[in-house]
Amino acid sequence: MAVLLAGAFVQGVVGLGIGLLTAPVVSLLEPQLMPGYLLLLVVLMPVVTLRHERGGVHWRGLAWSLPMRVPGTAVGVWLVAVLADRWIGLAVGVMVLVAVVASSQTVAVPINRGTLGVAGFVSGVTGTATSIGGPPIALLYQSWPAQRVRPTMAVYFLVGATLSLVGLSVTGEITRAQVLLAAVSVPVLLLGDLLARRWRDRLAGPAFRSAVLVVCLVSALALVLRSLLP
Where in the cell is the protein located (predicted)? Predict the structure, then answer.
């Protein structure tokens, strides 16, 4: 719950963070909860965000990225069905490491139909298999104002994570324990969002972003090492 609070806070400030911060810890402590538990929270958090920020959504970009999330989701569902918890944990750790490296580089990636489609597909795979689907899309929008990134990412998470949950539910990968724990976690999400709205203007800068990346890097390395050990 502590790391979930931190993830909700970070997502409230920069537009994503629940998966990056929380997935490695959950995979270390209770791998059987992945990825369903976090996907349920990834669906709930955008609802909270969109209560306060509805304007600025880049609908044209979503129109090209979200359709490609569907085939990506199918691949992600297949991976969850065939991979053991250990390999899912390794995938989570590697995905976080890739996201940290990509986020630490200021690369101007053009936003067009091709890049949005590729990002949507990759996000569908990683979001369904590891609950971390935000970085491919966030990489495209990294130079945009936060007031546009947050609501755009919120809509993407809401629709994309819903698709992933439907796919996992069909194959029986969503458990009762995951649903119950997600329900208990809702107050933590609300508190994290409340704190984020109060501190957003003070923290939405390079130093805060760097600190978040360092935390993600450490947790991901720990998860990868544990997954690789016999």
Answer: Cell membrane
